[in-house]
């Protein structure tokens, strides 16, 4: 006779280590690329303007900021043209914003697939991040044009950019992991994502410089918003030829690491129940 | 680690929350307020204590009514879902013969989508490229590969989503209701493909409501009901149990409140003995009519649910009160086994009035020879027994 409940010692425990999870992810690396390719190809076929949509968002913000912000709020750009000053921050911000909003809904949108085939579920937010990265690469073309127009060449210190990007990518992926898995369980949270991102745009030093923040609070600012030292770092290195503020960047990198590892752990934990609630 | 293609699922349990369909922040906040009331939320057990052990090359059929947990079990074996309790060891690559129409992107071409589905199912691009022509030929989409999928018919989409999975060459193949999709020729090809894969030593788990195909493809079967194993063993034995339960369930559900009621049914062989193959069969029925009725009376013999193997009909005029009807079959063309007698009577203009609804009224066991085997994977439509003798002429001098 079957008992009413399974004995406690029979409870299923998933034996999962970071190493095993990452190995599994590596096995499915082609799927990440294929999913990203699916999005990009489909967009390219569908929209008349194709990839130019990717450029449009930061471009429009840049124009709006230049026309209004610069006049009203007299931002100190330390000699750089304001258009360049804001655009160089808008590219990484748009990357973050796109990755989080695409990645956040990536699981919900693929629920019919989650119910049918096995794959490490993180391929979906990672693929969305890749798509956002391609968009960001397209919008770099405009940056090149701005350098030419203002005849303001990037400084040698730009070799810092990969380091800054790693911190940014870690934070972006971490947020995408947390958001995408949480949205499956709490569906109406998705309506709040655009609002929070909109607030995030003004909570990050995009339209203004990090100098606007009082010095004594800057460490807290960098700790709470890792994008702040990263964006400030892009400006310092590329526009002003200086090294990034390593203290602030370190604090940001700390938060980014915590968010990425914690987010991934949370994602893998919530992953076990995805097909049950989907 | 066991050999590739082996499955050990030991005492698997799985539960769901029936009211979990609404997962909104609003509900979460509400539950926070009325914490006490929500504490004892009811869980529904979808699977209770299911054990399955398969060696490489085994074939297992899963049967059971809707909602009995068949698909949940498959999802656990394919790692789409995780069990609540139990031990699970599935070694080797698991491939599921499923249609992944939901993964197709409408704006991409059939070719691009084939690669997409391939990577979803765990094939590398190289693998898909190698088998691409076979896949497209299997799906019969040669003319449409470079057309966008949004211009495909739903059948074409289904075939494309399905064809890729047919070329997975996994260690374990899981097939869930292939026969529910596609037209007859596509179904035939799917079954053929399934047999090819089996012939290569793949472990098979096959779920279907189509019992004859289970009988033809699977050596072992499990019958699930309400998430529990009802019967587990060689397919013919499990099928007998399963069919019996279906039939008996139908007898229980039988309404007997129409204008004509069945009072008594007896099924006998010759001289009151049990029915025998190729011997006379006699069915005696006592009917009671509430008022005079006339129309055809139908009798059918089935092996299990649904379609009858034999049918008989006779135009009948019933007076008010009891009538005894006797049917004699000269040579009963049925092999050994249990059969069920179905009955119904209809009348009025266009025979639209149901005097006696079509349903099972009795079962009987036939004694006699069993049917011979069929070629592997070939389905016998109905069990009809005919006496046959063989003459084999061997040319002189070539004796064995």
Keywords:
heterodimer; A: 278 residues; mainly alpha; B: 400 residues; alpha/beta; Rossmann fold; Coagulation Factor XIII, Chain A, domain 1; 2 domains; six-stranded mixed beta sheet; globular
Give the termini distance of chain A in whole angstroms: 32 Å
Low-confidence parts of chain A, pLDDT < 50 over ≥5 residues? none
Looking at how many chains there are and whether they match, the oligomeric state comes to heterodimer
> With helices defined by DSSP (H or I, 4 residues minimum), what is the helix count of chain B?
9
CATH topology of the largest domain in chain B: Rossmann fold
The structural class of chain A is mainly alpha
Task: Write down the domain tally of chain B.
Answer: 2
Distance between the termini of chain B: 48 Å
How many helices of chain A does DSSP assign?
13
- Identify the overall geometry of chain A: globular
Biggest interface, which chains? Answer: A-B, 37 and 43 residues
Main-sheet strand order of chain B equals: 5-6-7-3-8-9
Proportion of strand residues of chain B? 25-35%
Helix content of chain B: 25-40%
Total number of beta strands of chain A: 0
Instruction: Please give the CATH architecture of the largest domain in chain B.
Output: 3-Layer(aba) Sandwich
Order of helices and strands of chain B: EHHEEHEEHHHEHEHEEHEEEEEEE
Unreliable runs of chain B: none
